[in-house]
Amino acid sequence: MGSEETALAEAESQAIEALEPRLWPSSRWGDAGLNVAIYLALVIPATFVGLGAQLLVLAGAIAFAIHRRRAWYRSVALRRDIQLALASDDIGEATRLGRRLLEEMPGRSLAHTVAVAWWGGIELRRGRPEQAVEVMKRALGTGRFGGRTGRILEAWRLNASLSLAHAVLGDLDAAQSQLDAADAQVGDRARGGLFTVRAYLLARRGDAQEVVELFDAQWRSAEPQLSISGARAARMLEAFALEQTPGPEYRSGSGERLDKAIDRAREAPPGAYAYMAVHWPELRDFLERHGLK
């Protein structure tokens, strides 16, 4: 790495470290208490000083609501761009957009809490599963991802990402618990979106034959519900499992199937699967052996 690249990497690292104060989302109950306090502080005095003050308070409340609404619209647009970057395995662009999302969203807001949750997913893809788990658990701990709001926010995606982060770390019980939570939240029309996480967890447990059976049973229906990145990662896991699956019933014709899976996996840019193997030497060896690292 040249001096210019080193300097850029150090600047990026410092910029990310500077985000730490923004990675503490507020709970919905804390925000409710703050809103009540602000309301009382503004409205009670206004009742004693006349209509002009009351109108001023009303104007301020409307301006505050408009500011939050605009921030939410910016959040939606930025999250869409992050999703596209992650789907194409452009982690550098996703990181840049994720930093912008955190920096632009007003504190003590739903938009900020969602930004923290998305940053956890980015940290996972950057190969930092420990940080990913910590940040995503903070977001879930706010209580904002349950009930109707959770369904609107597609909270199953957050639980799925947290499940994958736990599995990458080798904490398979926690990974299964979060996968079960995601499975309970996701609707039938989107259930295929959990396919790659499910396959990874099975493979991490050493259940290679079950991974192959999962593909046989669900791949055709799941593939259209996955992002490009998720589909490529799934085929990489299929290839990994095929290499380890004993028995003639799976070995028959598996050479061609293995080649097709690896060819699809090779469509990803270099390093796209590295985050999955940071604590898994066997997968790391597989990636190196097939030029997928």
How many domains, in number, for the residues? 2
Distance between the termini: 18 Å
Fraction of residues in helix? over 70%
Number of strands: 0
Largest sheet: none
Structural class: mainly alpha
User: How many helices in DSSP terms?
Assistant: 15
Determine Rg (CA atoms, Å): 23 Å
DSSP strand (E) fraction?
A: under 5%
Q: Given the C-alpha coordinates, what overall shape results?
A: elongated
> How would you spell out the order of helices and strands?
HHHHHHHHHHHHHHH
Unreliable parts:
none
Mean pLDDT: 87
Oligomer: single chain
How is the secondary structure organized here?
Blueprint: H1 3-17, H2 28-46, H3 51-87, H4 91-104, H5 110-125, H6 129-140, H7 147-152, H8 155-169, H9 172-185, H10 195-204, H11 208-222, H12 228-244, H13 248-251, H14 254-265, H15 281-289
Structural account:
The protein has 293 residues and is mainly alpha-helical. The protein folds into two domains: 144 residues, no CATH class; 105 residues. It has 15 helices and no strands. The model has no long low-confidence stretch (mean pLDDT 87).
Comma- or semicolon-separated keywords:
293 residues, mainly alpha, 2 domains, 15 helices, elongated
